[in-house]
Amino acid sequence: MGFIEVWCNNKKTFVTLLLFMVFLFQFSTGIAGELKRVIVIVTMPVATCEANLKWFLTQLNDLGYKDGSNMDLTIIRANGNRQFAEDELQKNLRAGKPDVVATIATLASQAALNVLKGSDVPIFFFQVSDPVGAGLIKKVGIPSGTNITGRVFTVPSKIRVDLTLRLIGQATPKRPILFGYIHSTYPSAMGDIKKLKKTVKRRTDLIFESYQITYKKVPDGIPLMLANVEKGLQVISDKVDFWWCPQGPLGEINDYTHLLLNHSNIPVAMGNNEASVKQGALLHITPDLEASGREAAIFVDAILKNADPGQIPVTPPAKFQIGLNLSTALKLNIVVPPDMLDLAGDHVYR
Amino acid sequence: MKLQTKITFSIIPLVLLGIFLLGAWSVDKARENIHKSNLLYMNTIINSYLIDINKVHYLLVKNGLDKVESFVSEYKQKALKEGQAIQIADTSHIFIMNKSGKLIFCSKKHNKNKMQSIWGPIAQKTVTSSKIESELHMIEKDTKYVYVSRHFKPWVLNSVQ
Fold first, then answer.
1. Structural domain boundaries of chain B?
2. Which among B55, B62, B73 is the top mutation candidate for probing chain A, defined by the most A β-carbons within 10 Å of its own β-carbon?
3. What is the ipTM of this complex?
């Protein structure tokens, strides 16, 4: 029998087979070129948020995600306004369901959770100092069991306190040592001072003296917040031995450290970031921004490949950075131990 | 005398001589290998200690602190404490001396003065040697002691084991 005869006798079978092959071909090309919808919400335009965003996008690129090709990327800049972030996210949801929402810092993460709670849209947060205090998760170190996971952006308070004491303990023979902590009502700052006070509660060698100001949206609210910080300086500077920069946007503003250093004679023991140490703070220990951004992208990639965010435990990041100001150390007659100097590596400033 | 007996008496001394020579050679070889093994052990310990000292010194130089007295003094103390933590055989000692032969540190607490009188001159000889500082070593097999010595010039420390 020839092909034509076979074809005439088995028309139905041939057509079914042909349709099935066309369908398979479409499906396979669909997987290879499937567009992933990624929304990134950035809390505010401060240096750490921008650095995290930059490394996050760089790593996504390294993993093969190209905006406009296999990824539809939307970046929402909240500018310190949580309501604005929620409204923009709602607007984007109307255009289509995202495959993952990545959030940088606390307000953006809270906004995403408020909009997407109970949904099946995965949320990955990073650069959040106190996710439990911010209401994002119940406990650090365990999977959330929901659609949210992320990375904690802080060094445990006990480690920060112990490291600081190793240095300033040499400069201050008197006990207890008083740290001044002027902070805003931003969630990460509130959570940080709470944890620090809890850490030192049973100790007799140091005390945290705090002064609270109302958080105002960054960047417009910066001048007012700094004016209130200056008031706080006048109130508590005669009670404290050293300053301790708060976590959150206030501590990240360069003018904050500048204000502490220039409007009081009291040294800054713990800075919030590398910039503060360059200005004159003795020490900072913070998660490494490049490692943090890249790690977030790796987790987002896993989620885009169907990893369940509810099964990924929330833990601190893997890599940290220590920075030291030697001029400040020498001025205070502090000898930095060799192991700390070694850990600081190239992040030693004068 | 029978021929058999003559042959036996002429062979036995040769065999005995052979055994004796073999024995002497074995003893000499064993002594040499024990000596080498001891030197390898001592060199390993003292080199790893010098790595620690060099590392600490490098930190000072890299951060421009090698002229800051408080840092140098503290880091020297730290380096000496590292010496105390080294685990060595019971029959070994580690000494650290300054360039004038004064004992700064001894791993064995007893007989310090005696150690200084024996090893002080050797430490001074190390300093005046023309070999590269911090990699110098001198080995003298003919004394009843086997030792290796290093001179760390930046801190004028001689480490002898």
1. 3-160
2. B62
3. 0.70
